[in-house]
Amino acid sequence: MKRIIYIPFDHLHRNFGALKEADPKQDVMAMVESARMTTGRNWHKERLFFLISSARHFAESLKDEGFTVEYVKAATTIDGLETIKAKHKLSEVICAEPSSFRQFEALQKCGVTFIANDFFLTPRPLFKEWADSQKSFLMENFYRLQRSRLNNLMEKGKPTGGAWNFDKENRLPPPKKYEGPAYLEHKRDQIDIEVAKELGHTPTTTWATTRKGALDQLKNFIDNHFAEFGPLEDAMTTDNWALHHSLLSPYLNNGLIHAEEVIAEAVKAFNSGKVPIESAEGFIRQIIGWREYVNGMYWFLGPDYRENNQLKATRKLLPLFTDSNKTKMNCIKETVADIEERAWVHHIPRLMLLSNLALVTGTNPQEFLDWMREVFIDATEWVMVPNVIGMGVHADGGAMMTKPYAAGGAYISRMSNYCKPCVYNPKLRTGEDACPFTTLYWDFLDRHKETFAKNHRMSQQFFGLNRLSDLPELKQRAKEVLEGLEQGTI
Length: 490
Ligand code: SF4
What we know:
This protein is mostly helical. Helices cover 49% and strands 6% of the residues. It binds iron/sulfur cluster.
């Protein structure tokens, strides 16, 4: 019987999802470019370009394979599907479980039949089984189980290299004037040019929009960056915007490449002896640990989780997030400028600069979450909700993380080259030259001392707070800093 197979823009893989069982002779492939998706929010144009051009390329590849492909533009996904159903006089629509609660509900209402989502290595029921059995949802526990279950970097039931993680080796600051190998550039074709024209955007050459490009990126990472990935994975430098990060998350998240394929190549490279264990483990942890954990937690925590605001943070989104010229803080200026250029910075600026700033300034978590969703090339709902609400701004009362990721200028100064040319001094917490991060870090601890009083993992931080002799001056400076940040003058 003829069926419609609906392919969301993040299921772009021939061998996974509903497509793996598709029959070119029978099935109609449905793809919908919805106005809600393209103009519904203030999306970064580089992100829209990447998602739309990848989908259009994918539609073409299916046509080349002999499929009947309906790629329509419509007000909503459901409107588009109704148009395709009417045109082909078909009622059955199949789709792999979508990747957000909102889409799940919309498709369910319109009668779509779901098959299990296999774009991850951990089936949703399996993750739920693990989470149900836990008192606290420590990623480390989940990760160790994944290593054993998937048999990655394991020898006779023990972790390869004798340890589950090599975090100590993987915390190097950036070397001075570090260039590293050149990054891969992706040439633009006719489809890219058309999409860019429609969006009124001049895309970078950073992001591939085809399966071949995504595989080239994987090969480039394995050949040129993987060995050095680990030690520098937390470093930040203005000398090199990507260091040795893989830049694979956009393709993993829109389906052009599958985690299974990435892990297979990573393990092969490690087994060849060219990659040290700290890099192999650090990278594999990101894929089979963090990525799977965050997706699992999104579904486990439920649709209301994104509305959490347990620290009662009410400040409106600061102007520096949407305009890098609205701050003198060098670390934030450089980071936001990078995002403006290519819709990407790696996990440490996301966590220790952007989220840290939202946390210590008491920015409303939902406003910050919306901004993060809009500006990053790889920002799917499932990845951003737990990462921002749970990990980034601790708005969930500690459901995911045992303590907030708040840090002052000392951490940023140690892990980057941002501070030297900055007008502020990371060592100072009061006075006009004080680093806003340092001032606001202590102010944050003081504002929330009752909330975290019983958190033994923060006892050292509160010990430090209690020893501050200049708390009244610091509180005054914090007030000035927050006003300056709101006005875009700090
Ligand atoms: Fe950022 Fe503070 Fe360093 Fe300036 S001194 S770059 S504001 S951490």
